[in-house]
Design brief:
Enolase-like, domain 1; 7-stranded parallel β-sheet; 12 strands; 397 residues; alpha/beta; TIM Barrel; single chain; 2 domains
């Protein structure tokens, strides 16, 4: 099966209301949809996480791959990616994210050609119901959405998610520059969701060591399952470990450094393209297993990337913790099967061939036109302020 064409199209997936995180307001995500056409009429779908991947794919990688055997993934990778250590040492590694999206589409093509869901190509399912966390943040009100601008309001939102959707796994960002605000929110959220619910936090490297030490000391009695990137570096997390038993996670995939520091952080939270695709991520997960370190996936993808998460986690018994999700806040998608809404914390893996999702032409056009009109959704900008990147501080309620 020969590759005849490859297209990479940036799309904007907005949120119903933006949320605050450590560097501003997060209004939504810009992703790159990849379509690989073949001489057998099959089209593989993939997704890359950054808008700059579109140019790399369309201008550089696609011409190299036209005419290649779509099943010969190893040869396709050698056409696109230099030796990984050289890429990371002498250039930026964005080529890995671009290739990772292409590789995802090649896996989708394999499944479609062989009429098998991706999880079967990865070895078969360890489970078919995949857990995800419910998300919470400080969010300004936009229409009927958002409005959780106090610790009490966030706690009430979490209570509603438990009552309405059976949610018992929660994760969120409370880093607003005021440690008292976070401590108060944790106390109220725990009371709202009950003692049996999972509660994870994410500071996006927003605290100093002294402030993080104080926060961890105050919130430890409230059974925090994990705290993601409370400070900026692994070395700082290792210092925090001396003051708290709460596990840490990170988006930085440096397993060797974590092992050298005695297993700090405890878990890696990645997408499937950051390391260069599904095959490379499988190797990374196997290494995490060897060193007894955790892994789960993060959030913000389109229906294509989210479907890939579902299949990947289904086929890996070692990935037992729920992945992140902002499913309920994403107000558009590019697939017919998107708009995922977990019930009792779980989604079922798609059973169709490959990724099990199909492009929705109207939704795809709508999201692509939104990118053409608005440009990329930079996640450090505040659309409600005149100056981008301004972070407003909130008083305790």
């Amino acid at each position: 099966m020969k590759i005849t064409a490859i297209r990479a199209t940036p799309v904007n997936i907005p949120l119903d209301a933006p949320f605050f995180w450590s560097v501003g307001l997060y209004p939504g995500t810009t992703k790159v949809v990849i379509e690989i056409e073949t001489d057998q009429g099959l089209v593989g779908l993939g997704e890359s996480p950054s808008p700059d991947c579109a140019g790399k794919i369309n201008d550089s990688l696609a011409p190299k791959l036209v005419g290649m055997d779509a099943f010969d993934m190893e040869s396709c990778e050698r056409k696109c990616v230099q030796e990984t250590r050289v890429v990371n040492n002498t250039d930026d590694s964005s080529i890995l994210k671009a290739w990772g999206g292409i590789e995802m589409a090649l896996w989708d093509l394999r499944g479609k050609a062989w009429n098998q869901p991706l999880y079967m190509l990865l070895g078969g399912p360890a489970r078919k119901e995949i857990k995800f966390t419910e998300y919470f943040c400080f969010r300004p009100k936009v229409g009927k959405a958002g409005g959780e601008m106090t610790p009490k309001a966030i706690a009430n939102y979490c209570r509603q998610m438990r009552e309405k959707h059976g949610s018992r796994c929660f994760e969120g960002k409370l880093c607003m520059g005021d440690p008292n605000l976070e401590i108060e929110a944790v106390k109220l959220i725990r009371k709202a969701i009950g003692d049996d619910a999972m509660l994870r936090l994410d500071a996006n490297m927003g605290w100093s060591i002294p402030t993080a030490t104080r926060i961890l000391r105050e919130i430890e009695p409230y059974n925090i399952r994990n705290y993601e990137d409370p400070v900026a570096t692994f070395e700082e997390m290792a210092k925090l470990r001396k003051h708290s038993s709460i596990p840490f996670s990170t988006h930085t995939p440096d397993l060797r450094r974590a092992v050298d520091l005695g297993g700090v952080p405890d878990t890696f939270v990645l997408n499937l393209t950051l390391l260069g695709g599904i095959a490379r991520t499988r190797n990374f997960v196997a290494a995490c297993k060897a060193f007894d370190m955790g892994f789960w996936c993060y959030s913000g993808e389109t229906g294509i990337g989210n479907a890939a998460y579902l299949h990947f986690v289904a086929a890996h018994q070692w990935i037992s913790e729920p992945s992140q999700s902002i499913f309920r806040w994403q107000c558009d998608d590019i697939t017919n099967e998107g708009h995922y809404k977990p019930k009792n914390d779980v989604l079922r893996v798609p059973e169709g061939p490959g990724l099990g999702v199909t492009l929705d032409p109207k939704g795809f056009k709508r999201c692509a036109d939104r990118y053409k009109k608005d440009g990329p959704l930079y996640q450090y900008r505040d659309p409600y302020e005149k100056k981008p990147g301004v972070l407003r501080r909130l008083p305790l309620d």
